[in-house]
Amino acid sequence: MDLKKSRDTFWIIDGLFKLLAVGCFAWVIYLAVQLFGYQNPVITDANRIVVIGLLSEGGLTASQQDVTNTLMAMPQLLVWGIAFWLGSRIFYDLSENRTPFSKTIQKRIDWIAKSVLGLAIFYPVIYSLIATVVAGEINLYLTFDLSLIMGLVLSSIAAIFRYAISLQELADDTV
Fold this sequence. Notes:
The protein has about 180 residues and is mainly α.
């Protein structure tokens, strides 16, 4: 497969993903300083499609939501930073003219898929626990966001790559 024509594009995407990864890690450090160094952390959680609060008498106050959202943003940004870094490694390998159907690339895609799925599944549980601790009363939140869909799609792509690798190995053995 000739990937030389796309080499520059892969190189640019590699650089963008590295910048995004570094930005995520820097944002985590900034949030940690804001949370642990100052009294009023401020961040909003805008990527949730629906949030349902159950077992909550009065809900969270604005300052409690700020603290909870800041605490939840840090692991979320870490997962996205790792995903962007692994994505940059995939595009770096492609820019170096390595085959896309290698076990290394398949494992990176699989790792990204599992981490995004884990984030989507455990986010509501952890958010509920933190909200309960911050508010001092039981809070249960159910959320649905696009991370779940993205994780499932990436998991499917990793399975397709796994199958393609086995076909490639079979073709190599035949030749």
